[in-house]
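hi! just following up on the protien thing from before. the input was this:
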Amino acid sequence: MRFIHNLSDAMKFTNLEILRLNGTKLKVVERERLAVFKGIKQLDLSYNRISQLKSDTFHDLKELRNLSLKNNTIKQLHADTFIELHNLRSLDLHKNEIDILPQDLFRNNKNLQKIDLSDNVLKELHVDIFRGLEDLKILYLHINDMERLPQGLFSDNKKLEEIRLDANRIWEQIDVDLFKKLDSLRSISLQRMSLLNVPQEQFHDNKKLEEIDLSENHVKKIHAETLKGLDHLRKLNLRYNQLFKLPRDVFQDNKKLQEINLADNSLRKLHGDTLMELHNLEIIYLSSNRLGNIPQDLFRNNKELQIIHLDGNRFTEFHVHTLRELYNLTEIQLKNNQIADLPQGFFRDNKKLQKIDLHGNELKEVHADTFTELNDLRDLFLSGNEIQTLPQGLFLNHNKLERIHLNENLLTEIHVDTFNGCNNLRWLYLDRNKLEIIPENLFRNNQQLTSVDLSQNFLKQLHVNTFKDLGYLETIRLTNVTLQSLPENLFRDNRKLQEIDLSKNHLTELHIDIFRELDDLEVLDLSDNQFVNLPQLQNNQKLQRIQLQYNLLKDLPGDTFQGLWHLKYIDLRRNKLEVLPHDLFRDNRNLDTIYLSENSIAKVESEFFHLSKLKFLSMYNN
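and the predicted 3d structure came back as:
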């Protein structure tokens, strides 16, 4: 295979139909060099440093169909730049610095089907710029500086199927007739445009519209007539506006709608019939509004619903039948509300649920049958509540459950059989509770666990069999649990451990061989304890980060970090070190960060300066 790195090399192959010179640092493109490629059909000059083009640069490329000039620094185009490209189908000028276009730039490009002018600095367009482009289907004008678009701009572009105008500076509203007679239009994006209003006739000629994006504007009201007649509409995005209510019949003609995004508005209530005609609805986002309740029958006709987001509202409770007959529901987001209780049987009909997020509510208890028969459940978030106890059997027969978040609650104890039915559990978060004891066999049936977080509890000690048979465990976090000691063989079955956090405890020593078998260990945090001596680390040759700050270390033998070839970061701040052996870091040639500050070190041996990759060394207050 021959790789062409510049235009000079390419000139040897005069019969090329496709030439890609993207990313070759081209600054100038000369007509005489391109002229040898008279039969070329595709030319890619993207990701170069081209700042200007002569009026005749492409005049000999009469067969050219696709031209990409994206990601250059072109500021202006001559009116004749593309005049000879009668066969041009696609033109990509994305991400240049063009601020104005000649009004007759495309006068001879009648076959153009796609134009990308996005991410430039266009301030305006002449009304005739797209005149005569009757085959144009795709037009990207987003991320420019235009404040208005002239009426009649698209009058000749009846075949337009996709328009992107987002991220311009168009204020208040778009001309009501801008999309008039564009009866082939399927997708339109008007996001991030500071629109205050969408005229009720805006889309009345666009009966084939399938996608409308009006997100990130300032729209306060959608008229009942705005979406009328759009019976092909599949996706509607109104996120990040200022809507405070919806007309009862706003979606009455949109029976093919599959996805609605109404998140981040100011909706206070919804009528029970708002979604009544949407039999094909699969996804609805109502996050971050001001909803305090929803009608119990809001979703009664939306049997195809798969995803519901109701997080970030003001819900305190739900009717037991809110999710009734939603047999296809796979995900529901209810986090960051004020829910104090879920009625028994709330998820009774939602047997396909895979994700439930109830984080950040005011739940004090969870009924034993809340998740009964949800056999497909994979992710469960109950964190950030006020749960004090978990009923026995809560997770019974949840063989597909992979992730459980119970952190940030008030749990004081946990039954030995709590996770007995979770054979595929991989991530378990029990941190920031009030647990005093972890039952010896709590994880006996959770042999797929890869991460366990027990931080910020009141454990004081752990049984030697706590992590028994957890051969896939990669991360253990035990920070700030008032541990005073650890059993010698605590990690004997955890040969795949990559990260251990034992920081902020009351540990004074660890058995010398406690980490001996952990060949994959990469991160070890023993900071903020009372260590005087360290266990052996020579067998942990994959260690990359060691944190030992805020201890009582006074002497470190020269072989402390022997064999740790991959070590990059070590923190020994706030100990009582007085002397560092000259060969302490002799095997740690990859070290780039060393903290030795706030000790009593009198001098540093010259060997330290042989660490060629060292980028940061802190020695203050010695």
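The first helix runs from residue 7 to 10.
The mean pLDDT is 95.
cheers
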